[in-house]
Amino acid sequence: MSNKNQRNDYYEFLKILPAIVLAIVIFYFSSLSNPYPTTPSKFTLLFLNPMLHMCEFGALSFLLFFGLYPRIRVLIIITISIVYAFLDELHQYFVPFRYFDIFDFFLDVVGVIGGFIFYLLVKFTRNRIKSKD
Q: What does the buried/exposed string (b/e) look like for 92-118 if buried means 16 or more CB atoms within 10 Å of the residue's CB?
């Protein structure tokens, strides 16, 4: 009986591991004074930066839902994602040549909500496919 519980705990940890890895990657890139390999043009930054913020926090939110739901409630997972986004922006305040940007935080929150909606769509589609079998 105990061996089965240990196996379940191990699988539950493996489900959350991608979210932990992504959170570390986000923190790493936030620690860089210039996270871009080359200096992009202002036009590129105008579109690339918002897309990166939304995609990285959308992916984080999706992976947190994959790893934590239904053991942890939806509102708590969304709150964890949004708090991490805020802490990421706050962390950038202390990095040379970076700053806290409320617009970036807003984009992060949009990404978190988008990741949650994408998770719901994937789960809904998966359940429909399963019910047809």
A: beeeeebeeeeebbebbbbbbbbbbee
Measure CA 82 to chain center: 9
Mind listing the pLDDT tens digit for each residue in 61-103?
Answer: 999 999 999 999 999 999 999 999 999 999 999 999 999 999 9
Query: Tokens 């959170």 sit at which residue?
Result: 23
* pTM of the predicted model over 0.85: yes
Q: What are phi and psi for residue 61, nearest 5 degrees?
A: -60, -45
Rounded to 5 degrees, what angle do the CA atoms 35, 93, 77 make?
A: 85
Q: Which phi-psi region, left, alpha or beta, contains residue 97 (left: φ > 0; alpha: ψ -120 to 50)?
A: left
Domain ranges of the chain: 2-132
